[in-house]
Hints:
By secondary structure, this protein is of the alpha/beta class. It is 35% helix and 23% strand.
Amino acid sequence: MHFYIKSYGCQMNVYDSQRMGDILISLGHKQEDQAENANLLIFNTCSIREKADDKLFSDLGRAKVLKDKSSENDFIIVVAGCVAQTRPEDLLARHPYVDMILGPQSIQSISERIDDLIKNKNLDTLILTDQKASDKFEKFNKTGSFAEKSVSEYLTIQEGCDNFCTYCVVPHTRGREFSRSVKEITAEAKSLVANGVKEITLLGQNVNSYNGVDESGETSRLSRLLWELSSIEGLKRLRYTTSNPKDVDEDIAKAHRDIDILMPFLHLPVQSGSDEILRKMNRKYGRERYFEVIDMLRSYRPDMAFSSDFIVGFPGETDQDFEDTLDLVKKVKFSQAYSFKYSPRPNTPAAKMKNQVSGDVKAGRLQRLQDLLNQQQSDFNSSFVGREVEVLLAKEGRHSGQLAGRSEYFQAVTVGNSDGLNIGDIVKVRVTNAVSHSLIGEEYQIEEKCEIKRKSKVGGIDEC
Length: 464
């Protein structure tokens, strides 16, 4: 079959979609870039915010039109991911033409279940929402990388969540925390590098609560895993996301100081600057703990840059609570951030809380917060004009002769006059301009043709 996959929401969905693609390609199916060219449409969904739901339902309407017009006997529509896990019956009631519903821990079954649908066209909609993360990754471990890889890729090391924030559906969609073994992760990382990947971002709902076992059977924390992966020949950059502030420890801070390929950028969601709202959210830390984590990381890596997530208008949020959030932002100074109006999600405690904040108030607060965050990002980027940054070139730029990539600090950077440069090169770029949310550079210098110097596990330095 010819298949098309669309991912919504988080990076973990992107990773899951890539692995579904690997499974299907390994069995002879062909991936398409456009839904119109496929007879198997897969929508890998997110349920964090209501807006993602709206996008899905709109896409499903267009998928039905394609299915009705198709001359193919086998035209299959699959809804996978978190919406599939939380509301399969609702999905089927609204969209009875959907052929398969797969929860996040069941996506490894996609190939077998598609065969079932092809062989038996009278089958009712297949609903699979009851498997485990361990089953999913066991299948992934047996499937090689078949889909084309970019120079920067994701690798899931931990899935699920034990925190039960009152606004969040993740524990109900992805289950309790599960960490893959060091051996499995290392093998997948080496496979990615062998396929031309230069940068790997480790993924987890709470990535810094990782506690997978190593080959001796001992538990390995995230810092140890980072050291293990840093020794992979050909791997140029390491990142990880998403971290909970309560789980950041000093070993992680030291890793940012000592591991050369670990980038000086961290996405560290705080959600609110109010202790009272953080308590209602069940975040298990307060604003002072957040400040302590920021200070600790910057004490080991002074140039560390931070991004964050914010929710405004959480139930019961007062004007003072919101002012506390603005105060936190002013003190930390973020290089970038994501901010959203609180969106009640089904079956979460926050959706049932009293004192829901009106839409107008949420909109006004969000605008004030975003104005401040955008100014901080602009100031951060402007501070790089005239300086050099190292950029991993990942794609062609918007205009002819340009290449684009990311700096060490996760800034989008466009490089002009790119003759002689290739996607995958790490180049030193002199920043000539900062516009909106990105940097522009013209002068560059290709790094020496050798492995990046990196510190060894015992603190020595390997030369080129």
